[in-house]
Amino acid sequence: MTFFWAFIIGGLICVIGQIMMDVFKLTPAHTMSTLVVTGTILGGLGWYDPLVKFAGAGASTPISSFGNSLVKGALMEAETTGIIGVLTGIFEITSSGISAAIIFGFMAAIIFKPKG
């Protein structure tokens, strides 16, 4: 059942993004930003973590999970260092993913020739 719910929840998040682009004519950048902000709001309200526990990778893989990670890092760091932790916490918890994206993107750019 874990795989079933991961597929359903992850698929629903993707369907929401596709509807935003097809029906509301939002650009991919606007859609991505909206999903990140939605994940941030749900994380701040404490609703995203129960969704991740229920759906597993179906909720932790989409871009909305990035917003949840940002708010989680900011809140954890704010508890220990105060208001400055809101700014530093978002970088601490997401730095490995962002670093990996930059490194692998750079490696792909070296290996493959872009069309242009």
UniProtKB/TrEMBL annotation:
The keyword Chloroplast does not apply. InterPro entries: Spore_V_AE (IPR014204), SpoVA (IPR005562). Pfam families: SpoVAC_SpoVAEB (PF03862). Keywords: Membrane, Transmembrane, Transmembrane helix. It comes from the Bacteria. The chain crosses the membrane at residues 6-24, 31-48, 83-112. This is Stage V sporulation protein AE.
